Amino acid sequence: MAEIGKRAWQLYRLVISLIALGCVVQFYLAGRGVFGIHGDASLADQSSFDAHRMVGNVIAGAAIVAVVLVIVLWDKRLILWTVILAALAVAVQRETTKSGQPWIAGLHAVSGLAILGISASLAHRAWRHRGVAEAVA
């Protein structure tokens, strides 16, 4: 059982770090998408945002994987923050893009910043500890 926990910890460390890195890439891709807008098509139909959408879907999937891994680790603080991260990455990010209200849609960027901050903090904590025994303690 300890071997499963050790592997889960290694995978969690990798996944959460990739989420943080993916968030930095997302900010670049969002800017690239904005400055690549052409014509009168709606924002949802702009192909300049395709890469941003794809990486966002990867981050959302990775956040769900991180939740499963952290449940295996059973560190209550990590579970709480990883679930918050997943809720932001999956639900909040999707819902803010569907809104027809600019003040709600503006929360998409704020939520993205929160995802970056939480994932970077979790990655820092994950790399600071070297194994399951230290992480659970």
Q: How would you describe this structure to a colleague?
A:
The chain is mainly alpha-helical and 137 residues long. It has one domain. The protein is 82% helix and 0% strand. The protein contains six helices and no strands. The chain has helices at residues 2-35, 50-73, 76-98, 102-105, 107-128, 132-136. Helix 1 packs antiparallel against helix 5. The protein starts with a helix and ends with a helix. Residues 132-137 have low confidence and may be disordered.
Compact description:
This protein has helices at residues 2-35, 50-73, 76-98, 102-105, 107-128, 132-136.
Secondary-structure blueprint:
Blueprint: H1 2-35, H2 50-73, H3 76-98, H4 102-105, H5 107-128, H6 132-136
Helix pairs in contact: 1-2, 1-5, 2-3, 3-5
Whole-number total of structural domains: 1
The largest sheet, given as strand count, sense and whether it forms a barrel, is: none
Number of strands: 0
Roughly how much helix do the residues carry, as a percent range?
over 70%
Overall geometric form? elongated
Work out the helix count: 6
Top keywords for this entry?
single chain, 137 residues, mainly alpha, 6 helices, 82% helix
